[in-house]
């Protein structure tokens, strides 16, 4: 959808070119950075701080080279004037950070395991910042270990992210040994296939684990998520820190109707929603519950979900081999 040109200050601090700095091929002024900050906030709600200036230069300089442009002003003009969805996607992907790991912030997963044992089936979880997939797969492993394979088969996990490139990697479910080195041998054997031949040194999540997860692109700053079905738990970890307080409040207000009675919201270690929204209250270490549930003094076990909205088109992984080749490239067990 076409968007209005983002306001920026031509008199922003440090308007002098910095092309002479070591390793820099392009001039990059304060006005350029101010405009980038305005555009990424407008498109994705991300508040890009001043200390991210060098990061913005290095990542977007690749787009200038790819498009054969000489200045950031030319690139930003092209971005707004052509309004090409693919270039906007490349711009947004370049400025998002995707640090993740299997069972990151590990204290959350025993809490989730205990919690889902008391919930009405089928259990549903939304991982709202899925990145390259380590978090939703960690959630899926936790559900299987807590509920058993038979019961967990009916559970569902929605995994979304703004960045389509990392979603493609997540959907592929392929990781290097280094990325899974902290998983126990038992979990590796149970939940992953070992790469062979050209895929040696990698592992791939087993099909039954992958089948529990639906990957979709979603922008948390959109006014309407297109989701009608509420969840037992929402994971929104280490993404709200990139939003300003008003945007955080808007996101939390959209989360509220998407949490089943008695449901939980998991936040990142550096995030605190207590003074951002009255819809949620702190229940434990970076774990929140609905304020209305706490006020009622009860935590219902579950609720009948509303009809699900039509699914979005899934992000497709750009793999170097087809389904048949993938099956042959990985052994039966890690």
Structure description:
The chain is of the alpha/beta class and 334 residues long. The protein folds into 2 domains: 1-95, Orthogonal Bundle (Chemotaxis Receptor Methyltransferase Cher, domain 1); 108-296, Rossmann fold. It is 37% helix and 15% strand. The chain has 13 helices and 10 strands.
**Name of the CATH architecture of the largest domain:** 3-Layer(aba) Sandwich
H-E string: HHHHHEHHEHEHEEHEEHEEEHH
Uncertain ranges: 1-20, 298-328
User: What do we call the CATH topology of the largest domain?
Assistant: Rossmann fold
Rg over alpha carbons: 22 Å
Strand fraction equals 5-15%
Q: How far apart are the first and last residues' alpha carbons, in Å?
A: 45 Å
CATH superfamily of the largest domain: Vaccinia Virus protein VP39
Shape label: globular
Largest sheet: 7 strands, mixed
Question: In the CATH hierarchy, what is the class of the largest domain?
Answer: Alpha Beta
SSE layout and pairing:
Blueprint: H1 30-44, H2 53-67, H3 72-82, H4 85-95, H5 108-117, E1 124-127, H6 134-147, H7 149-152, E2 156-161, H8 164-172, E3 174-176, H9 185-191, E4 192-194, E5 202-205, H10 207-210, E6 213-217, E7 231-236, H11 245-255, E8 259-267, E9 280-284, E10 287-290, H12 291-296, H13 323-329
Parallel strand pairs: 1-2, 1-7, 2-6, 7-8
Antiparallel strand pairs: 3-5, 4-5, 8-10, 9-10
Helix pairs in contact: 2-4, 5-6
Briefly characterize the structure.
By secondary structure, this protein is of the alpha/beta class. The protein has helices spanning 30-44, 53-67, 72-82, 85-95, 108-117, 134-147, 149-152, 164-172, 185-191, 207-210, 245-255, 291-296, 323-329; strands spanning 124-127, 156-161, 174-176, 192-194, 202-205, 213-217, 231-236, 259-267, 280-284, 287-290. Helix 2 (53-67) packs antiparallel against helix 4 (85-95) and helix 5 (108-117) packs across helix 6.
């Amino acid at each position: 959808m076409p968007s209005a040109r983002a306001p920026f200050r031509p008199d922003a601090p440090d308007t002098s070119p910095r092309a002479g700095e070591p390793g820099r091929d392009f001039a990059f002024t304060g006005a350029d950075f101010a405009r980038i900050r305005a555009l990424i906030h407008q498109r994705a709600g991300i508040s890009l701080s001043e200390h991210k200036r060098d990061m913005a230069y290095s990542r977007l300089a690749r787009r200038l080279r790819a498009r054969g442009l000489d200045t950031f002003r030319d690139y930003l003009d092209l971005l707004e004037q052509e309004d090409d969805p693919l270039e906007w996607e490349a711009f947004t992907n370049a400025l998002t950070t995707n640090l993740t790991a299997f069972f990151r912030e590990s204290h959350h997963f025993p809490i989730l395991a205990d919690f889902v044992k008391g919930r009405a089936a089928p259990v549903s979880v939304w991982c709202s910042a899925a990145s390259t997939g380590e978090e939703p797969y960690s959630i899926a492993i936790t559900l299987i270990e807590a509920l058993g394979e038979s019961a967990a088969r009916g559970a569902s996990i929605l995994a979304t992210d703004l960045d389509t490139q990392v979603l493609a990697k997540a959907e592929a479910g392929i990781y290097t040994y280094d990325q899974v080195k902290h998983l126990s041998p038992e979990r590796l054997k149970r939940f992953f296939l070992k790469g062979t031949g050209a895929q040696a040194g990698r592992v791939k999540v087993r099909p039954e684990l992958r089948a529990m997860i639906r990957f979709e692109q979603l922008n948390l700053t959109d006014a309407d998520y297109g989701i009608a079905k509420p969840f037992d738990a929402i994971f929104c970890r280490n993404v709200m820190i990139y939003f300003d307080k008003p945007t955080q409040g808007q996101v939390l207000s959209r989360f509220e109707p998407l949490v089943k009675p008695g449901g939980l919201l998991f936040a990142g270690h550096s995030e605190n929603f207590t003074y951002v929204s009255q819809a949620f209250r702190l229940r434990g270490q970076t774990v929140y519950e609905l304020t209305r549930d706490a006020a009622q003094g009860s935590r219902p076990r579950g609720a009948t979900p509303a009809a699900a909205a039509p699914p979005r088109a899934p992000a497709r992984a750009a793999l170097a081999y087809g389904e048949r080749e993938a099956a042959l490239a990985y052994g039966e067990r890690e």
